[in-house]
Prior knowledge:
Layout: H1 5-16, E1 23-27, H2 47-60, E2 64-68, H3 70-86, H4 93-112, E3 118-119, E4 124-128, E5 135-139, H5 156-159, E6 162-163, H6 171-180, H7 202-209, E7 217-220, E8 226-230, E9 253-258, E10 263-267, E11 273-284, E12 294-299, E13 307-314, E14 319-329, E15 336-341, E16 344-354
Amino acid sequence: MSGGVDSSVAAAMLQEEGYEVIGVTMRVWPPRAGDAHSDGSVDQRGLDAVSAAARIARRLDIPHQVVDLRDIFSEKVVADFCREYSMGRTPNPCIRCNQHVKFGALLEAAIESGADAMATGHYARIDREQSTRRYLLLKGVDRSKDQSYFLAMLRQEQLERIVMPLGCLTKAVVEQRARERGLASERQKESQEICFIPDGDYGGFLKGCTPEAFRPGPVLDGEGNVLGQHRGLPFYTVGQRKGFGISSPEPLYVTGIDAQRNAVIVGSKDDACSDELIASRVSWVSGSWPQQPLDLKAKIRYRHREADAVVTPVPREESVHVKFKQPQTAVTPGQAVVFYDGDVVIGGGTIEQVL
C-alpha cells in the first residue's frame, strides 16, 4: 500500500470479497545513512507514503505493516541507476525495483509472514494456461494505464503468488470506487517521477552519487568531427534533441553515447533510428527459453508504440537479437525491450547494443 488510489481500492476490493487483508508498505527511501541531514532535519521522501498508507489501513480497519527494504533498494535499484548513467546508458529503475524489491524481497517477506499471496494496484492481469498450467502475464484492460511493460521480468514462481485486482478495470472505474468508499488518495497527486528523485532533478541526484561522470567532453558527429562540448554524459540520452548549445541548419539528435571517449554523438533524426538491437539479461515469463526465432511485437520504452519484430534467442549468452520490420526511433542502451504476443507478455531484457 502506498496511500494512493490504486492500492487502496485493491485492498478494499479484496476485503469485500472476504479475504483477510493486511496492508504492507515498503520503506525504500531515504537510505539509512541519509535519514537525517547535518542540520537535524529529516528527509521526508518515502515517509509520507508510509503515513498515508497507514491512514488508509485505519480507514479500512485492517492491520498495517512497514517492511524496511532500504538496503536492497539501495543496492539493486539506486546503485544500478547511478552505475548505468555513469556508463552512458539510460536505465529503467522501476523494472529493477519490481524484479528485485517489490516482487522479490517484499513478496518473500509476505510469504514468510504467513500470507498466501501479495496483491498490488498494478494495471495488469494474471491468468493460467489450461494446457500447460503455466501462469500468463497479460496487459491491463485500460490500455492508457497498462503497466505490464514494467512487470516483464517476473517469473512463474512470483506470478503464482501475485494478485492484481485492478487489471480488468479502467482508471475511471477505480477512481469512482475510491470515491464511493471514501478512499480518495491520501497523497497529493500521482507522481510520474522516479520515487527517489521526486523533484525530477536527475542531474542533481546523479552528481551526488557519480560526480566523476560529469566531466565535460566532445560532441561529435557521425564522422568524429568535434561540434562542441557537452556538460556531462548523464545529461543526455539517445533521441534527445536539445541541450547541445550547437548551431545547426538541421535539428540534431543524440544518436549514441560513447563512455570510453566521454563523447556524445549527434546526427539527423534518421541517424537516431535503428532496426536491430541486442538485449541481455533476458527473462521469459514462461520460464523456458524458446528454441527458434519468434514473430512478436516489441516495445523499447514504456510510452513507445509496439512494433513488429523477429526475436531470435541466443540461450548460451542469455541474450536475444531483435530485428524490427521498420526502424525505431531512439533505441536506447539500458532501457528495457519487452515482447508481446497480443495481450500476453512473453518476456523482456535490457537493451545492450544498438546495431
